[in-house]
Amino acid sequence: MSLAKLCESISCHETNIISDSDPLFSWIMSPQSSLLNPEIKSYPISKSEPLFALCWSLGTDSHLWASLKPADPPFRCRIPFPPSKCTRLHTHDYLELAYIVSGEFSQKILGKIITFREGELCLIDKNCLHQDILDKSPSTILFFGIANSMFDDIMNSHVAEKRITAFLHSALMKQKNLQQYLHFRPHDDARSDMEASLTQLLLELIRHDLASPHICRGLLMRIFHMLSTRYDFSLSRELRQKMNWILFEEITSYIQQHVKNISIQELSEHFHFQEDYFNRLIKSKTGLTYTSYLQNLRLLKAKELLLHTKQSIDAIAEEVGYQNKGYFYKIFVEKYHITPAHYRKKHLTGE
Question: Cys-Cys with 225: which of 2, 14, 159, 319 at CB 3.0–4.6 Å?
């Protein structure tokens, strides 16, 4: 069964329909009101459950059909909405991952209206103020609420790149002053694999047996690995500034570890950015081009090897990535105004 058909079956075909007096009814969609204070949506099921799914189906009849998994007993609800209706401004005490199964879906996040298209995802921090805008029908949206314990597992597993875990870490540390979200757009070949994993995850939440939390954990780890390797993402301005430093440190650490054979093409393949991104990032942080920055790192490594090993100078030149020994000598002298041999002798003998 496709993810779209599965979502339709649980949101529209459950036999038990809850009334508008049920607390879950207003939790699923609190309408916008004149109240100025934002709503804080609490985790709707037992905290012992590390994950839940909420499926929304917006029809052409100006009604929202919704269902929550796991739920005992299973239920659905039918909520009328006029065009361009908004939910109440709110935050969560959990993290929310939304996937657009079909159609489009808009949210007002940090005062800006953002439209998510079919196949895209949004990860929203616990403290991030937002509203859902119900003006894109027909559409189907699948929300996952993820408890802190589950995020701990994801971070500790190292399945995601640092640029993703940094977001998670700041959320878990409850940094109230940093409101943030991530908007994910798939690479060409990512969507089918993502939908397969999301379908398995939703089926497991429907099954809901003793093994389900463990299976869901593994599936969510797979999903976050895909998000960090096969999706592009955009984010809020504050988080982008923070992420740029994290990415710079991650990229330069990778360059240092592979200084002998590193290339900008290899960086592009490993970090999934266009090649000109690395030049822009390094220039913004150091004032140097990628080529000049790499040369500085190689020469610093050469100085370290000259002082702390007995390798020949030719071997050191090759170790730091220079096959042309004459060129290595030339740039070393230009940088330090001394030959490699004299540098070694001067610092080891004090002459």
Answer: 159
Q: Provide the CATH number for the domain formed by 3-235 in this structure.
A: 2.60.120.280
The DSSP annotation for 136-193 comes to: S-SEEEEEEEE-HHHHHHHHHHT-S-HHHHHHHHHHHTT-TT---EEEEEE-TTTHHH
Element (H, E) at 344: helix 340-349
* Nearest-angstrom CA–CA distance, 194 and 61: 30
For residues 79 and 27, give the distance between their C-alpha atoms in angstroms, rounded to a whole number.
Answer: 12
**DSSP 3-state of 7:** helix
Q: Is 308 exposed, middle or buried (CB count within 10 Å of its CB: 0-12, 13-18, 19+)? A: exposed
For residue 110, report the phi and psi dihedrals to the nearest 5 degrees.
55, 40
C-beta atoms surrounding 187 within 10 Å: 12
Q: Do the domains spanning 3-235 and 259-351 agree at the CATH topology level?
A: no
Q: How many Å apart are CA 194 and CA 5, to the nearest integer? A: 16
The better pLDDT of the pair 136, 6 is held by: 6
State in words which class domain 259-351 has: mainly alpha
pLDDT per residue as tens digits for the range 105-153: 999 887 888 899 999 999 888 878 888 988 767 899 999 999 877 877 7
Domain ranges of the chain: 3-235, 259-351
